[in-house]
Design the sequence.
């Protein structure tokens, strides 16, 4: 949003899962961002509704008449040149009648996540349900992406996965996730002033994050403690399930901090960031934030999937529990290696994961006078956008 608003006139509407914090409310007010609260969990009722409506469960959980009406009202009143949809869950709110440039940012190839979820479950009804959901998500993703002039994937792997389900290759572009740019402006962290502490910060309601944390707490942390008995693990993030909180509370040397308004004290105190999920897909924003802050990171190969990194230089990568624990121990004890990885991580972000570099494909699409090929069949989008520009006396600034 910040990047686009510096270059274009932008109006934003967002779904939120919980009431905004004070700082979030201030930011939303300053930027005239309108929000709609949707809090619908996974339940048998919502699952049945999703089948009756012919849509995946996640899409059903994010369905809102209020959001639909607000989007249509804004588009009808404002006649924007372009609409940028941030994520497949809100693609349902793009009206059929809108004829401007349409862009969809896919944070994952979602059907692949469900396929992996199904594969890792044993023979059980839950495996069948996950496999069924993978099929429904695959069909839905292919259907909705056909409506967009441009589809942005966050990694090459995801782009290939989207093309494999029928998305026109010419309409798929890369738009990587980027970390909070303010992290790059902060002073370098200090090994000497940090503690023997491992940090984890992420959205704790997402199943791959839950699985990764359970692995870290129950399998990897005990191996690290054999070498460093006083090591600590601090877990921070929103919406943790009760079982995860209970696991942290009953495990020695693990503290659950909940959501953080300011993560900087934790970044300064911790010596290592760890992300050991066994499920790939998209790119892990939490890893990019740690790299931008200069906190050396240990990650599983699956966790680092899609990131343009060199193993050992930017992030220490490993597959099995023993190797991940050894990498954590190395960064907790070797100041020279810690400093090199810290500096390399920040240099990587500055070179590749800042908006001016990472968002070039978005700039290119917005700069084109006409939509890309294979846009909306028969909708005449290019002509209508040209007519709107003519009424304003020239192209002017695009208004996504």
Sequence:
């Amino acid at each position: 949003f910040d990047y686009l608003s510096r270059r274009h006139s932008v109006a934003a509407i967002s779904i939120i899962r919980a009431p905004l914090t004070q700082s979030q409310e201030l930011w939303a007010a300053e930027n005239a961002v309108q929000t709609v609260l949707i809090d619908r969990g996974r339940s048998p009722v919502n699952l049945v509704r999703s089948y009756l409506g012919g849509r995946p469960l996640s899409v059903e959980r994010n369905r809102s008449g209020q959001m639909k009406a607000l989007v249509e009202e804004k588009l009808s009143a404002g006649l924007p040149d372009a609409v940028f949809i941030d994520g497949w869950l809100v693609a349902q709110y793009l009206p059929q009648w809108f004829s401007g440039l349409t862009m969809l940012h896919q944070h994952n190839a979602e059907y692949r996540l469900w396929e992996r979820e199904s594969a890792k479950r044993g023979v059980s009804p839950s495996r069948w349900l996950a496999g069924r959901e993978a099929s429904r998500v695959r069909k839905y993703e292919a259907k909705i992406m056909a409506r967009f002039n441009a589809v942005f994937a966050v990694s090459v792997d995801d782009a290939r996965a989207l093309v494999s389900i029928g998305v026109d290759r010419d309409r798929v572009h890369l738009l990587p996730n980027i970390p909070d740019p303010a992290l790059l402006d902060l002073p370098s962290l200090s090994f000497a002033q940090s503690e023997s502490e491992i940090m984890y910060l992420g959205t704790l309601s997402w199943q791959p994050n839950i699985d990764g944390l359970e692995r870290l707490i129950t399998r990897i942390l005990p191996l690290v403690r054999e070498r460093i008995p006083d090591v600590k693990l601090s877990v921070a993030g929103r919406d943790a399930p009760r079982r995860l909180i209970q696991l942290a509370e009953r495990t020695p040397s693990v503290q659950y901090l909940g959501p953080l308004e300011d993560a900087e004290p934790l970044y300064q105190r911790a010596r290592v960031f760890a992300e050991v999920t066994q499920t790939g897909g998209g790119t892990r924003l939490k890893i990019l934030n740690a790299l931008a802050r200069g906190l050396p990171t240990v990650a599983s190969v699956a966790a680092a999937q899609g990131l343009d990194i060199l193993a050992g230089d930017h992030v220490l990568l490993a597959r099995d529990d023993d190797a991940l624990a050894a990498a954590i121990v190395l960064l907790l004890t070797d100041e020279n290696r810690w400093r090199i990885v810290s500096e390399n991580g920040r240099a990587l972000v500055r070179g590749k994961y800042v908006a001016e570099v990472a968002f070039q494909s978005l700039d290119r699409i917005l700069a084109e006078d006409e939509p890309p090929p294979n846009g909306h069949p028969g909708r005449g989008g290019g002509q209508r956008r040209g007519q709107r520009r003519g009424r304003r006396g020239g192209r002017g600034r695009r208004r996504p």
